[in-house]
Amino acid sequence: MNISIVCSDPLHPIMPVLEQWAQKRGATHAVKIARRIAELDHGDLLFLISCHEIVRPETTRRFTHSLVVHASDLPRGRGWSPHIWSIVGGENVITVSLLEAAQGVDSGMIWTKEQFRLDGHELHDEINARLFETEIRLMDFALARCRDIAPQPQDEADASYWRKRTPQDSRVDIDRSIREQFNLLRVCDPDRYPAFFEKDGFVYDITLKKRETRPEGNDDARG
């Protein structure tokens, strides 16, 4: 099978995961990872993973199936960074949808959905690990079921949309407690979109790091 993957950002944290998947699947399939739509030829499966370009019908027609992996319970949560918005809003059960690429934003036919659960303490890298594991399982599902799948249409009446996040969405309010803003702190990418606050004309980045183990006995680990 001829498989192409488009991921627009070579520094996106999912890229090593995609490269590992491509190497593994490359033993039995032809797999190509591209950064731009213009690099694509034709094939059986096209996966659009964190692809920032608009994919037009002239591209999807060159593939038997063109698929998107989107981290929301579609049709609710169309748009940008849906799992980030959900976690900031207090959600710990994240649904990831596998759907067909379509002209309307995240409006294609649904192949399947899978959920993963967070406990509320996970930081950015841990959240990504759970999300990427789920996305890879959905890609494997597509590979296994692409010949007999019966996709289901979305109910447009239930559709909702998230806007694109900006660096300003990582701003922390120094007049509010850490507890109130912990969900925001834990989803911020420390390399690309760090949490920050402003004070007296200066901007300060915040790095949150979890200790490997919890202290035993009481909250004071110093003894």
Description:
This protein is an alpha/beta fold and 223 residues long. It has two domains: 161 residues, Formyl transferase, N-terminal domain (Rossmann fold, 3-Layer(aba) Sandwich); 39 residues, no CATH class. A six-stranded mixed β-sheet has the order 2-1-3-4-6-7. A two-stranded parallel ribbon has the order 5-8. It has a two-stranded antiparallel ribbon with strand order 9-10. Helix 2 links the parallel strand 3 and strand 4. The longest helix is centred in the middle third of the chain and has 22 residues.
What's the layout of helices and strands?
Elements: E1 2-6, H1 15-25, E2 30-34, E3 43-48, H2 57-60, E4 63-70, E5 78-79, H3 82-88, E6 93-100, E7 110-117, H4 124-145, E8 161-162, H5 178-187, E9 195-199, E10 202-206
Parallel strand pairs: 1-2, 1-3, 3-4, 5-8
Antiparallel strand pairs: 4-6, 6-7, 9-10
Helix/strand order: EHEEHEEHEEHEHEE
CATH architecture of the largest domain: 3-Layer(aba) Sandwich
- Shape summary: globular
As for the CATH topology of the largest domain, it is: Rossmann fold
What is the number of domains? 2
Q: Give a short account of the largest sheet.
A: 6 strands, mixed
Question: Whole-number radius of gyration?
Answer: 20 Å
Structural classification: alpha/beta
Strand order of the largest sheet: 2-1-3-4-6-7
Gap from first CA to last CA:
60 Å
